[in-house]
Each structure stands twice: as C-alpha cells, then as structure tokens.
C-alpha cells in the first residue's frame, strides 16, 4: 500500500506569487542565481511557453483549496502557458489532452506528477523537491567546508542527500527512523549525525513534517537552511539569533524542478 504524503492546506498556499518572489530573492542571496537559473543548471533545459494542463483530482482527501490555482500561477511564473481544466479526474485529463496540453500536472494524496506527453518524461514531486533544495544549499556562495547536515531522510530527504553525496559533499544525516537511517548510511555512505555530540554546519538541508527539528548546537552564524519541510524547521527566534539564511516555500520551487526536469 502506498504511504500518504503530508498534505498541504489552503492556508499554506495563500498569495503563492508573493511567496515565490520572496523565495526567489532568498535563493539569489544564497546562490547568486534565480530559481530558474538553478533549474537550468540542474537539468540543462529552459521553458518556451510549453502548454501545461493542470487537472484537479478529487480522490482521497479531495481537492485542496488554492492548489490548482497555485500550480497555474507557478507555471506562469516560470514561463509556461498553463490552464486548469474545468473538469477533475479522468474527465479533466481528457480535457487537458484535447486542449493541447504538452505537460500534465496532477496530484492525489500519494503522488504529485508532471508528465510530458511529447517526450514521455515523467517526474515525481518528492525527489524533484529534494534535489532542488539540496542543489540550492550546495550552491551557497560563502560555503567554507564540504560538510552538510541533512535532517529527515524520507521521500524528499533521501534523494536530496543522494544528490549532495553525488556532488562530492561530506553528508551527515539524521532521522529518528533507524531503518531509514541505516539504509541511507549503507547505500549512500552518509555519516550518522550524533545528536549527543553535535558540531556546527554552514549548510543544512531539512525535509521533515515537524517543527523545531534543528538543534541550536548545529547552527553557525549566517548558515543556510534549505528546507521544503512544512511547518518550518526553525523558530523565528533562532533564525534571527544566528542570522540564518532560510530558503523555504510550500510548492513552487519543487514544481519548477519537476517542470524543468521533464522538458
Ligand atoms: P516522509 O514522511 O517521507 O519523510 C519525513 C522524514 O522525517 C521521516 O523519515 C521522519 O522519520 C523524519 N523525521 C520526523 N521527525 C524528525 C525529526 N525531529 N528529526 C529528523 N527527522 C525527522 O516525508 P517527505 O515526503 O519526505 O516530506 C517531508 C516534508 O516535506 C513534509 O512536510 C512535506 O509536506 C514537505 N514537502 C514540501 C514540498 C515543497 O514543495 N515545499 C514538496 C514535498 C514535500
Ligand atoms: C504536493 C504537496 C507538497 C506537500 N504535500 C503534497 C500534497 O499536499 N499533496 C496532495 C496534493 C493533493 C491535490 C488535490 C487537488 O487539489 O487536486 N488532489
Ligand atoms: Mg517547493
């Protein structure tokens, strides 16, 4: 049986354009690049107004308010020509294809996918999100070491950790799920992070559904925390105290990664 994702709520998605603009300036400050430039560097692609059909899906917990409208706004922000179908589900898919969609975006409670109908490429939100947040962290302009801390090694965190290992970083990983932790150690060569014996990091990538997952002892002044996790991994108080450069956003960065990956 498929395992459920932590689901977004309509309030996470309020004013997605403003959230994206703020995320873009945070990414620029950390990496010197826009989100679109990071995507281009990752996948070697650029959009040219490809038609994206967004299909609302009613199964499971059903439609999430603001979800399809946010995907529409996000796709336009990155230079795609998107539309939301009037009908949901199978009828919506039919409508999307009949109306010329080259890429279909749709999500149920388990899987959020982008499918390019012209070249057959398909992307899943979880690895695409992990990879782009890890890539952003890895591009920190003021980085002073190859050490990175990854907190949360699940469906988003594991692919992000794998990406960092592949880029040549020394990755320290932590997850309270011992099975996941052991799998990450044995398959990726990640170093288990010892909470009892912490060290400071200038780059942290977090992917958990919990708040306050980053212990104060690992924060260095002006470190980068790149995290798709909802709610946020760090309190506002700690963020200010260490002048943490926070990259976080509920849907757009991961969606950009998916769209660029299927071009
Ligand atoms: P998952 O359930 O597969 O993995 C989460 C992992 O976090 C688990 O292995 C769990 O043991 C671990 N964890 C829980 N508490 C922890 C703690 N205190 N310290 C360290 N690890 C802890 O979930 P998934 O799919 O990887 O998603 C992670 C988060 O990312 C969720 O909040 C999800 O909603 C969010 N997400 C955000 C996206 C975005 O675009 N912003 C896109 C996709 C997911
Ligand atoms: C894609 C996000 C990121 C975090 N959790 C994931 C989530 O909320 N997935 C559920 C998406 C369901 C969408 C719904 C609709 O409105 O079409 N079926
Ligand atoms: Mg995102």
Walkthrough of the structure:
The model has no long low-confidence stretch (mean pLDDT 97). Helix 6 links the parallel strand 6 (147-151) and strand 7. The chain is built from 9 helices and 11 strands. The two termini are 31 Å apart. By secondary structure, the protein is of the alpha/beta class. Helix 3 (67-77) crosses helix 9 (252-261) and helix 5 crosses helix 6 (157-166). It is 37% helix and 19% strand. The protein has a 6-stranded parallel sheet. It has a 5-stranded mixed sheet with strand order 2-1-3-4-5, with helices on both faces. The protein folds into 2 domains: 10-124 and 253-261, Rossmann fold (3-Layer(aba) Sandwich); 127-249, Rossmann fold (3-Layer(aba) Sandwich). The radius of gyration is 18 Å and the shape is globular. Residues 5-6, 125-126, 129, 151-157, 174-177, 180, 207-210, 213, 228-230, 249-251, 253-254 line the site of 1,4-dihydronicotinamide adenine dinucleotide. 1,4-dihydronicotinamide adenine dinucleotide binds next to helix 5 and helix 9.
